[in-house]
Structures are given as structure tokens and as C-alpha cells.
């Protein structure tokens, strides 16, 4: 700023000051009272607000401090991330499940034995009937690593042009005999296939595991997965000319618009029997092979049957959305195959994280999410049921480590 400019700036400032000094504005008396009243109420509201903020802060301190959390093996960050909206009794969180079990008196009697299906297995085979788009490739990589550590053979199905998710009984029996239980040493077997009832087929039960994922996230994931360039490249390499490249317009589709425009690809009709190909039914993999019951989309009966199978026949159904809890539960309930899983996982996390990951994935709009949640109610309920069970299994482990948590 030059000297001249500075001077004129100062002059201007003075002019403004003077204007304030000498300009007397006569206020009517009423207005003065009004202003006073306003000032008082402002002070009062500010006081109220500060008070509210203060108690909110206190509340948050309480939330972040209880020893329960550290005993449950959670970090502060994890808690605030999940429980910060004041959802004290939301049973879809670990903390909410803990509070629920405590307030209903179940905490005192909860044991891992009640929740452990592993001892019911009749062969030394871990059967992972992996659900599509739940990060199962990552689990398969982990199984390979654990196989070396625990001396079991990590196997999978032969990759085919179609996934045989549904099997009639004779096919299923042959499949189990020749591929799943044909191994004498400890082993794991992985395949995209709907739940097989080994009792019905008169075959011995393996140790069942699976992974789930938020049903809406799964749909988004699938939508962009089938459009990913590497998905085509891989299939082209494997199946050659049988793979027909789709149109550019199709490849460029956006999921949010697909839903808004009611594009047939993005309509999820209730109880419909078709569209098996886009794997919209996570429940199918847990419900089983009875198509009349398990195929109708978002049906109550399919959900109930899936819940029953999970409860009675699965050792663990986990989710990468709760990686640490899932790995701890796998370690605790299936130690023969999974002890040390957490260490192994974190030792190679970087490379595991990238298996089959689609880096091109626009985010879902709130509007599209709202539309979808209306049509996926049972799928969502099943998913939440599974998470609740996983948390219960985890809490039971922690209770046995630290009995003081029971009171
Ligand atoms: C079991 O069957 C699979 C698939 O047919 C085969 O690859 C594997 O070698 C068999 N294992 C044994 C131990 O026979
Ligand atoms: C939701 O389900 C209803 C009833 O089947 C159907 O009419 C509607 O098109 C569906 N909406 C979406 C976005 O899938
Ligand atoms: C999960 O476990 C790892 C390794 O023990 C730890 O570094 C990480 O903070 C844990 N994450 C959460 C969310 O608790």
C-alpha cells in the first residue's frame, strides 16, 4: 500500500467513525424496551443452548468411557462411529446388542456353548457356500493362508460358465459325494451354492460358514461389478467367444438413474420368481434349495427359513463390515481352522483388501436408498438378524474371558 493510499484509507475510516459519532438517531421509547427485551431473551436462549450442549458433551463422555467398551475389545473411534446418534438400544450395533442382553437378563446366562454349532459337524470339512458380492474372494484368500498354518486343504469348485446355485436332490447328492466330502484330511470347500440340507440328503454335516453384506450395498456392488472392464477381460480370457461385449450405453448406466427411471434392470418386485442372475436374493443362499419357498423375492417365508438355517446349522455367518468381530468369532468358534486368523489377516491386509475390489463405484443417492429399502425389507431384516447373532456370539466369548462383564 503506498503512503498516499494509506492516508486516504485512514481518512475514510475517520469519516465513518465520525458519521457514527455525530449522527444521533432518535429511537422511540417503545423500541428501546423492545430491544432490551430482545437482548434478555437472547441471553436466555444462549444460556439454554449452552446448557444443552454441556449435557450433550457429558453424555458423550459417558458413552466413550465405560470400561465395558474396552472389555468388549473396541476402540473409542469405533464406538463413536457406530453409536454417536444416541442409539443406545439399537440392536444392530454391538453396544446395543450388549445393552439389550443386559437389560433382558440374558447376559447372566449367555454361553458360547449355546451358540456353537461346530461340535455338531460330522466331517472335518469347512463348507463355505459363499454368497455373491459379500467379499468372499477375500475369505478364500484367507482360507488358503490358514490352510498352510493349520494343515488343511483349502479347496474350491471348478469355475464354470454358469454358477450352479440351485441343485435338485440327485445332483446335490452326487456333488456332495464327489466334491465336498471326498477328502480324507481336514479341508475347506468353497462354492456359490444355496444352502444344502445334509440331513435331507442323508449325508454328514460339514462345518457351515458364510459371509453377508448390507443388502442394498450388495445390489450396488453387483450393478457396477458386472460393468467393470476387468470383469469382462477375465471372462473373455476364460470363456472366449462365448462372452459377448455389451453396448456402451449399458456399460455407462448409473445405478441411481436406473432406479429413478424404473429401468427394468433396477426394479425389485415383491415375490417375483425371476432375476436369479443378478443375485438380488442374499437370503436364497441361506434359505436353501426349495425354490417354491426360497425364490419369491423378499418373502417372509424365505427369510424365516434362512434365519432358522443360520441359527441351527451355521457355525458362523460373518461380515466384512465388522471385520474384527467376525475374525474373533471365527477364531473362537472354529479354532481348528481359524485360530490366529486376525494376525494372518492383518499381516497381509493390503493385498487381501484388493481381491475383486471395484474401485469405480459411484455412491448411492439417499433417494435411491430410500426406494430400495422399501422393497428389501425382509432381506434387510435377515441381514440384521445375522449381525445380531454374530454380536451375541462375540459377547459370549468376551463374557467367558471376563466374567465381571455379566453384572
Ligand atoms: C475330490 O473331488 C475333487 C473334484 O472332483 C477332486 O479335485 C479331488 O481330487 C477329490 N479329492 C479326493 C481326496 O479324492
Ligand atoms: C417395489 O415393489 C413393488 C411391488 O412389487 C413394485 O410395484 C415396484 O416397482 C418396486 N419398486 C422398485 C423400485 O423395485
Ligand atoms: C481391529 O483390529 C486391529 C488389529 O488388532 C486393530 O489395529 C484395529 O484398530 C481394530 N479395529 C477396530 C475397528 O476395532
UniProtKB/TrEMBL annotation:
UniProt xrefs under InterPro entries: Heparan_SO4_2-O-STrfase, P-loop_NTPase, Sulfotransferase
Signal peptide from the UniProt entry: none
Keyword match Oxidoreductase: no
Tree of life domain: Eukaryota
PANTHER family, sorted: HEPARAN SULFATE 2-O-SULFOTRANSFERASE (PTHR12129), HEPARAN SULFATE 2-O-SULFOTRANSFERASE PIPE (PTHR12129:SF20)
The entry's keywords: Glycoprotein, Golgi apparatus, Membrane, Signal-anchor, Transferase, Transmembrane, Transmembrane helix
GO cellular component terms attached to this protein's record: Golgi membrane
Gene: Dsec\GM18995
Protein name: GM18995
Membrane topology recorded in Swiss-Prot or TrEMBL: Single-pass type II membrane protein
Family: Belongs to the sulfotransferase 3 family.
Transmembrane intervals: 31-48
Cellular localisation: Golgi apparatus membrane
Single GO molecular function: sulfotransferase activity
Amino acid at each position: 500500500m503506498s503512503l498516499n493510499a494509506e492516508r486516504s484509507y485512514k481518512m475514510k475510516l475517520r469519516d465513518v467513525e465520525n458519521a457514527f459519532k455525530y449522527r444521533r438517531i432518535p429511537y422511540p421509547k417503545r423500541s428501546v424496551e423492545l430491544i432490551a427485551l430482545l437482548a434478555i431473551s437472547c441471553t436466555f436462549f444462549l444460556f439454554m443452548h449452552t446448557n444443552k450442549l454441556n449435557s450433550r458433551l457429558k453424555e458423550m463422555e459417558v458413552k466413550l468411557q465405560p470400561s465395558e467398551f474396552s472389555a468388549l475389545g473396541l476402540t473409542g473411534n469405533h464406538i463413536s462411529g457406530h453409536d454417536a446418534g444416541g442409539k443406545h438400544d439399537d440392536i444392530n450395533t454391538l453396544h446395543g446388542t450388549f445393552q439389550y442382553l443386559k437389560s433382558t437378563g440374558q447376559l447372566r446366562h449367555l454361553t458360547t456353548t449355546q451358540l456353537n454349532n461346530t461340535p455338531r459337524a460330522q466331517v472335518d470339512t469347512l463348507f463355505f457356500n459363499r454368497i455373491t458380492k459379500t467379499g468372499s474372494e477375500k475369505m478364500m484368500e484367507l482360507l488358503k493362508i490358514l490352510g498352510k498354518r493349520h494343515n488343511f486343504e483349502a479347496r474350491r469348485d471348478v469355475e464354470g460358465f454358469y454358477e450352479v446355485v440351485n441343485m435338485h436332490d440327485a445332483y446335490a447328492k452326487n456333488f456332495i459325494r464327489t466334491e465336498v466330502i471326498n477328502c480324507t484330511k481336514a479341508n475347506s470347500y468353497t462354492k456359490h451354492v444355496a444352502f444344502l440340507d445334509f440331513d435331507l440328503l442323508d449325508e454328514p454335516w460339514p462345518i457351515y460358514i458364510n459371509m453377508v453384506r448390507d443388502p442394498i450395498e450388495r445390489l450396488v456392488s453387483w450393478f457396477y461389478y458386472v460393468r467393470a472392464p476387468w470383469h469382462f477381460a477375465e471372462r473373455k480370457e476364460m470363456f472366449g467367444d462365448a462372452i459377448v461385449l455389451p453396448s456402451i450405453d449399458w456399460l455407462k448406466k448409473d445405478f441411481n438413474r436406473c432406479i429413478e427411471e424404473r429401468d427394468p434392470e433396477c426394479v425389485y418386485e415383491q415375490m417375483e420368481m425371476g432375476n436369479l442372475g443378478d443375485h438380488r436374493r442374499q437370503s436364497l443362499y441361506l434359505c436353501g434349495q426349495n425354490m417354491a419357498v426360497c425364490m419369491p423375492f423378499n418373502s417372509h417365508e424365505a427369510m424365516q427359513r434362512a434365519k432358522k438355517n443360520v441359527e441351527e446349522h451355521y457355525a458362523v455367518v460373518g461380515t466384512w463390515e465388522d471385520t474384527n468381530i467376525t475374525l474373533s468369532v471365527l477364531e473362537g468358534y472354529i479354532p481348528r481352522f481359524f485360530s490366529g486368523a486376525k494376525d494372518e489377516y492383518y499381516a497381509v491386509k493390503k493385498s487381501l483388501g484388493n481381491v475383486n475390489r471395484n474401485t469405480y463405484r459411484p455412491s448411492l443417492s439417499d433417494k435411491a436408498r430410500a426406494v430400495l429399502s422399501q422393497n428389501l425389507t425382509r432381506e434387510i431384516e435377515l441381514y440384521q438378524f445375522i449381525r445380531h447373532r454374530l454380536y451375541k456370539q462375540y459377547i459370549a466369548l468376551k463374557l467367558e474371558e471376563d466374567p465381571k462383564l455379566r453384572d
